[in-house]
Structure formats: structure tokens, C-alpha cells
Amino acid sequence: MKVFETACSYAGIDSKDTESRTLMASILSEVAKKYPPRFVWKQVPLDWDGNSPLLFGEPLPGDMAASYLKGASSVVLMAITLGPAFDRDVRRLAVTDMTRSLFLNAAGAAFVDARLDQVQATIGRELGCYLSDRFSPGYGDLPLAYQTVLFRELNLTARLGLHLMDTLLMVPEKSITVLAGVFDSPQPQTIRGCAVCDLYPCALAKKGQTCVK
Q1: Dihedrals phi, psi of 183, to nearest 5 degrees
Q2: What is the CATH classification number for the domain harbouring 68?
Q3: Of 175, 144, 132, nearest to 61 (Cα)?
Q4: What's the rounded Cα separation, in Å, for the pair 198 and 210?
Q5: Coil, helix or strand at residue 191
Q6: Which of 54, 65, 112 is closest to 87 using CA atoms?
Q7: What is the pLDDT of residues 72-105, one digit of tens each?
Q8: Nearest to 67 by CA among 153, 188, 177, 150
Q9: Residue 43: helix, strand or coil by DSSP?
Q10: Cα distance between residue 124 and residue 130, in whole Å
Q11: What is the domain count for the chain?
Q12: pTM for this one?
């Protein structure tokens, strides 16, 4: 139900619009069956130079990473994608049925993020530890250019067929790369809201609303 409500929020569907909500439910079910996500992950040691975190001997830029990773013993890098077929279908529908294309795009965004929640939970169980909120290049003050490091270290072109454009955007578009700290105890959820969301400004934000509960 959370995935459904998130998809409706992304598409700007009103809670009383039963026709649109029925269509979204149908499309979300289709996404789950037609576009199985593929993902990879890697645990890497985290070093410190004073209060500055280092990955692969390189500083993690900005203050946000240092704040969220304080006390972490290592970092997990993750990437997930719905693949090129999803992008093709969104573009194809944009020519014949713009509403369905918009809903499919919103459903894909909600679905892939929810699947990444599951992946992160599974990794935590496998490692016997707790993972922090995840964050991506482009969130807060972690530069989007840090995508190049994640692509290099996860070998994303070879393993998932992802490509990084000159603009630092990924193809296929419905793909996510993230980092999360590894801890011995549960961490508070701190990364929330429009300020760190790569979907901003979505239809909901344009109405002055937010999906954060």
C-alpha cells in the first residue's frame, strides 16, 4: 500500500480520484511483473582523516556524508535499475497516451525505490549489522560528479548495463545509485524531504505538498 500511495503522490493523483487511482493500481501491478529490477552492491572499508570520511583513499566531498557516516565502520554501495525496456515503454506511451506514460513513470519511481528498501534490508541481515539512511550523489552537498566513483567501483556498465552521460545522468533513467553507512546499532532516519529528493519538483511538490509523513 505504501508503494501505491507513493506512486499516486508522484503522479499528483488526488485521494478522491478513484478512476486515476484504479489506473495507477493496474499500472503498478504491471510494473512489478514486467520490469524485474536488477541490482548490485559492495561493502567497502571507511577510513577517516580527522572528521573527514575517506573511500578508496579519496575524500567524500561535503559535510553531509561526514555527518551521516559518523561512527560507521564501513560503507555499502548499491545500484538498482528497471532496465532499458521501462524507458522505452515510457517514451512510447508519451506519443499515444500521455496520462498512462506519466503514471507509468511515477509507478516505476515508487517501485524501484521500494525494491531498494528491500535490498538494503536484506544486505543488513546478511552482514549482521544496521545500515543508515541511504543517500546518492546529488543529494545535499554530495556532488553529482561522485557518480563517476560509484560507476567505477561497482562496474555498473558491465554488470547492469548502465551508462553515465556527460550530464552525469544515468541511462536507463529509472536507475538509482546510493551509499549507506554500516553500523553496529540502529541509526535514526534523518534523510527525508524534498531537499534531498531527486524527484523534486514532482507534481505533489508543485501543489505545495510532500509525501513525507
Answers
A1: -130, 160
A2: 3.40.109.40
A3: 144
A4: 13
A5: coil
A6: 112
A7: 989 999 999 999 999 999 999 999 999 999 999 9
A8: 188
A9: strand
A10: 5
A11: 1
A12: 0.87
